[in-house]
Design brief:
The strands form 4 sheets. A 6-stranded antiparallel beta barrel has the order 1-2-3-6-5-4. A 6-stranded antiparallel barrel has the order 7-8-9-12-11-10. The chain is globular and about 65 Å long. The protein contains 8 helices and 20 strands. The two termini are about 25 Å apart. About 15% of the residues lie in helices and about 35% in strands. The protein is of the alpha+beta class and about 350 residues long. It folds into 2 domains: about 260 residues, Thrombin, subunit H, CATH 2.40.10; about 90 residues, Pdz3 Domain (Roll).
């Protein structure tokens, strides 16, 4: 069993590391033979890479609440407390000298307290500007007494499989570190969300590196490290970064609005049974497994067992396709679904709701 994307609590158990290796500017054979040293580039960009510490309060049900007072006192201190204070660490990078920092949503999204440690040893409390859990991108801000070193975005579209990249971050809470490797593949779907389009890299990334930058050979940010593929929880040389184009677009929206409202149907989906001829299902589509009571789909009349063939006229070949279409629809907007129930086709127009945030527990 090899988990791909980190769960929401991963920030508190430890986030991921980053990786990218770069050829020296002006070296004609750098891409073919590899760089002689990353030192000049790292000296230039590492001051903009930060370590992020978070604290989260998790409130659960008191296991002693229903016991008589005499028995409750006997077990007090022996069972897990109803309120726990968890700590975690991650990484981020400064994109504006005024103190704007990009990181993963799973690092800071549920934090009660965020502290940013700069490369020069200074620490500042940070506040959350906004976050988007479907893309796992967050924007935070610190207030420093003067301008801060910042990095710029590049384009992941200019990368090729085999290009060197460098990842920087805070693996295992050790502090600022870098790793180097190459681009292994593009367009990886880990099943973490409808917008999965990861860059696969072979540079080592480990818990604590989530949210750190992936640099190209010019020192531009071409991705944000977010997930690993591992049987043990540590690096086995397969890591994943969110492309810079998506990070930049989401960050711009978060900076302007603080949030990105996402559409929601309130259903659980299954790809596998929708196109199963032994179940009498059509060759394409997505089967509804569960419907949230009083959710948008329930109010529109969708039921478990229904098969959605198309959304807004576009045929569906996966649950991810439907999730993406709904997530891109503003809450209050409508999606037109072509469906099958017990072999009979029908159409529904569903008013999309606001996707609720998934809290850690």
């Amino acid at each position: 069993m090899l988990p791909a994307a980190l769960p929401r609590r991963a920030a508190l158990a430890g986030a991921l590391a980053l990786s990218t290796a770069l050829p020296l500017p002006g070296c004609a054979s750098a891409r073919a033979e590899g760089p002689h040293s990353f030192a000049p580039l790292i000296r230039r960009v590492l001051p903009a890479v930060v370590n992020i510490g978070v604290e989260e309060t998790v409130r659960g049900r008191d296991p002693l609440a229903e016991l008589p007072p005499s028995i409750r006192q006997k077990f007090r201190g022996r069972l897990p407390p109803a309120v726990r204070h968890l700590r975690g660490a991650g990484s981020g990078f400064i994109i504006d000298p005024s103190g704007l920092i990009v990181t993963n949503d799973h690092v800071v999204g549920n934090a009660d307290r965020i502290v940013v440690d700069l490369a020069d040893g200074r620490s500042f409390p940070a506040r959350l500007v906004g976050s988007d859990e479907l893309t796992d991108i967050a924007l935070i801000r610190i207030d420093a007494p003067g301008p801060l070193p910042a990095v710029t975005f590049g384009s992941s579209r200019s990368l090729q499989v085999g290009d060197w990249v460098i990842a920087a971050g805070n693996p295992f809470g050790l502090g600022g570190s870098v790793t180097a490797g190459i681009v292994s593949a593009f367009g990886r779907d880990l099943g973490a969300g409808p917008f999965d389009d990861f860059i696969q890299i072979d540079a080592p990334i480990n818990p604590g590196n989530s949210g750190g930058p992936l640099f190209d050979s010019e020192g531009r940010v071409v991705g944000m490290n977010s997930a690993i593929y591992t049987p043990s929880g540590g690096s086995v040389g397969i890591g994943f970064a969110i492309p810079a184009e998506l990070v930049r677009r989401i960050v711009n929206e978060l900076g302007s609005h603080g949030t990105i409202p996402r559409g929601w149907l309130g259903v659980s989906l299954d790809d596998r049974s929708a196109g199963n001829p032994f179940l009498g299902a059509p060759a394409h589509g997505v089967r509804i497994v569960e419907v949230t009571p009083q959710g948008p789909a329930a109010r529109a009349g969708l039921r478990p067992g229904d098969i959605v063939l198309a959304v807004n006229g576009t045929k569906l070949d996966s649950a991810r396709s439907l999730q993406r279409a709904v997530a891109l629809t503003a809450p209050g907007g409508r999606v037109d679904l072509s469906c099958v129930r017990n072999g009979h086709g029908f159409n529904l127009s569903v008013a999309v709701g606001l996707r609720p945030r998934i809290e850690s527990n």
